Amino acid sequence: MIMHHKHGGDIYSYRQIQDFSANINELGMPESVKKAAEKAVTACVHYPDPEYRSLRSALARREKVEEKMMICGNGAAELMFALAAARRPSRAFLAVPSFFEYEQALSAFGCEVHHYPLKESCGFAVTGDFLEAVPEGTDMMIIGNPNNPTGQIVSRDVLEKLLSFCGQHHVFLVLDESFFDFLTEEDQRQTLAGVSAVSEQPDLFVLKSFTKMYAMPGLRFGYGICSNCDLLDRMREVMQPWNVSIPAQMAAEAAASETEFARISALRTAQNRSEMKRQMETCGYQVYESSVNFLLFRDPYAIDAATEGQDTGNQPRSDLHDFCLRHGYLIRDCSNFPGLSKGYYRICVRSREENEALLAVLQDWAKLHQRSAAQ
To answer: How far is residue 189's CA from residue 292's CA, in Å, rounded to a whole number?
Structure first.
């Protein structure tokens, strides 16, 4: 049976939709990245460099590691599948909710996956309790830092314990830092960048992505950092040749030097996120802490299917996702994330004007149910 999973960003199923379901930087693609991609079209009469030589050099300078530790892919998801194929873990431990492709990649290569449900009472943060629940025989863990869909960072203390545990017990650790660039300098001090430990820990793989920060999901680019060069060679053996196109390589090389753009984006995102969270809470929504460009929240007005009735105007009652769609906004229904259920949603934090427009729809939904409860 083929397993399908709905993601954010499916604007193609709708017309004239405002997309808040995909977590893309509201500032858009930097001009240097756009120009590099446009220039690359002329070079597409040739095959891409299968060794990504110029790109790997730029990434190594950005991360301050040796070039041989870099591996490039058609998005972070491709690298996750390649890692599972090359490493072939037998038992993995995941904190959920988390990015679906972790489990999809592991299961595709026969790995037994165990879940650790993150506690809502702790804001879905990964705490020290996680290590106390590791099943015997676990040989791989995958942690998002920051995590998707929760937006939570893993504290420095917990990460240090996690790295120590994995080193002592020979557990391969994957740190997915696809959203790390959205952390402000203050938030970065609260956690630990995986690249700082990668040279000393060969069983550590740091996963990165330019998709979100540099607004290039259509180009597709992710990369990994690992000091186990034999593992990287095995990953390349299971990946298709020329997997990163010339436009993606050239755009990513330009993005690698756009660190100031990332810093400004992180600060702007933090301001807009704080204001959006405050206003949503005023409407009665349960909004969880986040350090990145999206918010996970729970709709207190979610309707139990068993008590489904009629709204005013004799229209069938719907959930918040459908209500937003009818008003031209696409948000992410998170009920298909392990560890979450109906009534949990995720929205991207965009510009103040865009956020206020969506907020008006969320306010209307809240008022509709508040009036209904008062009758």
So the answer is: 15
pLDDT at 16 (0 to 100): 82
The count of other CB atoms within 10 Å of the CB of residue 259 is 11
Residue (of 367, 365, 351) closest to 18 by Cα position? 351
What does the alpha-carbon distance between residue 110 and residue 234 come to, in Å, rounded to a whole number?
18
With H, G, I as helix, E, B as strand and everything else as coil, classify residue 204: strand
For 273-319, give the DSSP string: HHHHHHHHHHTT-EE---SSSEEEEE-TTPPPGGG--B-GGGPBP--
What local confidence, expressed as pLDDT, does residue 369 receive? 86
* Mean pLDDT of the region 183-209: 97
Residue 279, SS3? helix
Rounded Cα gap, residues 23 and 73, in angstroms: 20
Judging by beta carbons within 10 Å of its beta carbon (0-12, 13-18, 19+), is residue 64 exposed, middle or buried? exposed
Burial group, residue 31, by CB count within 10 angstroms (0-12, 13-18, 19+): exposed
Threshold 0.85, pTM exceeds: yes
CB atoms within 10 A of CB 341: 11
> For the residues 141-163, what does the mean pLDDT come to?
97
3-state secondary structure of 207: strand
Task: Specify the length of the chain in residues.
Answer: 375
**Angle 76-87/229-238 helices, nearest 10 degrees?**
110
Alpha-carbon span 193 to 183, nearest angstrom:
11
- Of residues 1 and 368, the one with the higher pLDDT is 368
Residue whose C-alpha is closest to residue 249's, from 283, 287, 221: 221
Paired strand residues for 97: none
